[in-house]
């Protein structure tokens, strides 16, 4: 049994990690960090976990990391780098924040507004999009989880860019995001009375921070700068991201490229040509469903991709990476079917 | 007082017409047609209308159209043309179905799959997008209400096409539609257990019938064929359409064009540059909110437009047209504020 | 035209007052108070009101009450009494808070935890349950709006207590309340991700403050102390209160008592015996629907009552009272049909 | 590995069984019956199950029951008895319908309106409320799953009746039920546009069929006839039942009785005195949370119980029983944590 610590256990991604690890055959939760709620029982913070025998929340300082085999950091951006810079240098870490996703410190500062405070750790961090960085992740000490929007967009585009199937200068990602991606923050627009029964675009025009990840990854893949258009929308639902991606290329070739790229992937399902996935069919699971349709205008294709932002987009992906880092079967603890209805 | 009949009063657009006319100062409802529920009281079919003194539902045959000043047809597509072809030739009619929207009978047959059964009436029908066909509507006997998606897209694009501000070959409409647009039909995917908490694209790739309206209207405006890409998505909410429109053109010029085009329109609100409207802020009202943002990629703009599919997208628009046809103030019965939260 | 001021215009009941008054034929909004958002435009605080020509938000101090005919106070409890104690002594006021509902200052302190700070005003305050205090309200200077739960329960019980039809020692009110009743406060349990898709009881066991109103009113009616059991539940919806009231008495006699008591009430609809009202059929309106059913156990009846907490339960009731205080037709501005779906 | 068949696999409880069995270590699905959708792939009927390697749907006739170790019948009421009467007489069966819950055929006919068509099988059927019929279930061939409402009410009342702690003539069950309990039937009131954002009572006054189960079970327990009042309400959520039970008795003694009765139960969690469970904290799981509060009126208590109607209320309970019937660990495949948010 591997001993696991989770920092930031009082947020949604922390709770999701606990949900998943509770069904894992070779991990046990040894410590739960949550500074603002230190001293509380998890069953009080998250009553849906009350049946589990979990350690109480403590501050990060109170954790004896010598007995921890792997630590998940589900802390807010910026806090994460400060905390991780002080953790033991040989501790295996999966970070769920944005802090170690961008390899170029200047890009980090451009998108996040502050100089990076853990440059040393940043250098060794491996980008955590499992399906495309599997070998690096197996050997990594510190893995930086991909952003939930960035993961969805990359699943829908990487095989196409790699196979040179689309016009790189005309890529539009229209994303529909559920509200849990915004976390447990107390904001007026996240109240039920404000959010339910309506929807809107936000961070329009190329201002969303996950663009930093798209730029970095797609440009490496293409061997030249690639800039996509990306507009997220907030939808009245709790879990799920649906990406509708408009590209110029041959739809059938695109569908074939997905089938080839993902044929042996346990969590990526390519649906038959012309069908469209729904977020309701991946809810609570680690699966990502991808569909391709042609348009009546020749040479255009619509790619749709759906995943659960808290699972495949965050905590599930993190556990998948942790499995690889510890030499466990990659799918362990992650094969639960989606919850529908 | 003008005497009003509504055919198809047991559907959502019929009920919405009643809601609006109940607050209208110079219309009174004289007859309510609903073949499948003929004989029933409206308060039993729609308990939210039980406080109103309404006639019982009857079959269309039972209505004495000689005493009717204007008839709304809120019938299903195809049924509408059959019924209207048999109504008195001088009866003022506002049709909410798709049957008289396309001027070319071949286009109608292409999109709807059957030959048109009321070609004579089709010839005199006026397209009911009030803001752009005001004078024709005033003089019309038969007005064909614009489709809810088609209305949203046209509000977001007509001034730009007319002012020649955008690339006509690269227009993408990504629409997010609430479920009441699908009507009261008993379909598995419209059940609460199936629809809530998830969302997906449908009619992908240029197959949605409202494309016939876009093609017709934009090509006339541009003076040459225009084909847009249009992907609707079903969102877990009851009312609202949000269009996110991706165009190539100068964002500031586009915003200025909207402000100019809609400056004296009572129901179209152009929000400040960079802001984005939300469907929750127009719910239950006849307003349409339009926003424009630039992208980080120069020469690209994102237009967002929000309206209530049952009001401005259908029954509100129909009442606005009926006001014009009867010589009543255009805004009468339509100035109620949205319901929020 | 009467000049109206609203204090607390940046909350939900304030916004609802504006929505209603926007359609009122003889009121105009002259001043909007909102200390924390003073200086802002209403269209920025509530974009659904952006089409209206409204004064900007100001602090209460900035309002010239000499030109105000009636002032609505939609402030939080406790704040309201402090503000009202400093307003001109001849200003007509409709208060929506709990501050002036209880006639006995000791009862007030018992339920609200602090000594009352405006005892003088409290003495003259009239309880604002319009249907039962109509004459007093017409003559009042200061009217204290009934709590939304307290109003629902009283509509479902007053005629029964008055006609001595039920066992006074065995009354159970099980209420299902939508979330807007909790206001715009930033609390974790009001977030969409926490509230939607689940429901629970709160303030169980006789601790909810609206019990003070039930005790006061029912005891006066009965001529002896009456204590009811009252359990509110938070339901994932934005508007609506449904009371299920369990009483011991003859169901048919109870139904007849309601029909008699409410026969000439414009906003109270008694549905046929055995039918049950739904909150979805009164949403956004000032109506209250009441139903009565018998049980298989003889001598027991179930009364169900539905109203919109923001309208009939709060701002609609307030406007109804203001109409009476100003000598306007009681129903003016309040006859809009519910919004369904 | 035990070979499992599921009849009625195209409904919600069928799909839920597949979700659960997919994570079960010693069961494999050998056959899926679904007459109306025979010939279809499960991934087409329920896309959320598309990652699983499942047999296609067949008619019941096509299944070779000789190779089946246990058959779940998730068929509609009445159909179930007809089908089961024709299955091999030695086949282990867990029935999820209402057909074998009532031991007295006259009671069955009274509540369900038709004479029972499988009286022989009915005689041997064991009532499937696991926590109270464990030994009988272990030895049973045919187990009749408890109704979801009936299970919730019994968890909240059996220990109190057994310990003689409450007034048997004054028990009120006010239930709040999510929509999936109504199944996948195409009914107007189950449409998203009709159901969401509103709630109402139904089957008021002692007409709900689950009363047959309450009567049967409580009367046996008490040794004399017991009739409860039971009012279900339809809530806009997909999963969950919340029972609010009003009883006369000593609250602390009641809480103690629950703690004692359920101390070793793996799926029943008694929360601390005065706390109230929420359906959102048991969603998608096999847990039932129970709380007790006192009232301000002495000698009255409020019991609240929450479970997921599709899991603990139906398919999870069925799997729990199947585990016992096959000699497998009772909790196998059922310990997944709830999905929150």
UniProtKB/TrEMBL annotation, chains A, B, C, D:
- Asked if the record carries the keyword NADP, the reply is yes
The active-site annotation reads 148
Q: Which Gene3D superfamilies match?
A: Dihydrodipicolinate Reductase, domain 2 (3.30.360.10), NAD(P)-binding Rossmann-like Domain (3.40.50.720)
Q: What class of enzyme is it?
A: oxidoreductase
Please tell me where this protein is predominantly located: cytoplasm
Question: Which biological processes are named by the entry's GO terms?
Answer: L-arginine biosynthetic process
Q: Which SMART domains match?
A: Semialdhyde_dh
Give the record's keywords alphabetically: Amino-acid biosynthesis, Arginine biosynthesis, Cytoplasm, NADP, Oxidoreductase
Entry's EC annotation:
1.2.1.38
Which reactions is this enzyme annotated as catalysing?
N-acetyl-L-glutamate 5-semialdehyde + phosphate + NADP(+) = N-acetyl-L-glutamyl 5-phosphate + NADPH + H(+)
Which SUPFAM superfamilies would you find in this protein's record?
Glyceraldehyde-3-phosphate dehydrogenase-like, C-terminal domain, NAD(P)-binding Rossmann-fold domains
Q: Which GO terms describe its molecular function?
A: N-acetyl-gamma-glutamyl-phosphate reductase activity; NAD binding; NADP+ binding
| GO-annotated cellular components | cytoplasm
According to UniProt, this protein's pathway is:
Amino-acid biosynthesis; L-arginine biosynthesis; N(2)-acetyl-L-ornithine from L-glutamate: step 3/4
Which CDD domains did the record assign?
Answer: AGPR_1_C (cd23934), AGPR_1_N (cd17895)
Where in this chain does the record put each Semialdehyde dehydrogenase NAD-binding domain?
3-140
Which InterPro entries does this chain map to?
AGPR, AGPR_dimerisation_dom, AGPR_type-1, NAD(P)-bd_dom_sf, Semialdehyde_DH_NAD-bd
Subcellular localization: Cytoplasm
Q: Does the keyword Membrane apply?
A: no
Regarding protein family, the annotation reads: Belongs to the NAGSA dehydrogenase family. Type 1 subfamily.
Function per UniProt? Catalyzes the NADPH-dependent reduction of N-acetyl-5-glutamyl phosphate to yield N-acetyl-L-glutamate 5-semialdehyde.
What the entry lists under HAMAP family is as follows:
ArgC_type1
Protein name per Swiss-Prot or TrEMBL: N-acetyl-gamma-glutamyl-phosphate reductase
| Organism for this UniProt entry | Sulfitobacter noctilucicola
Q: Gene for this protein? A: argC
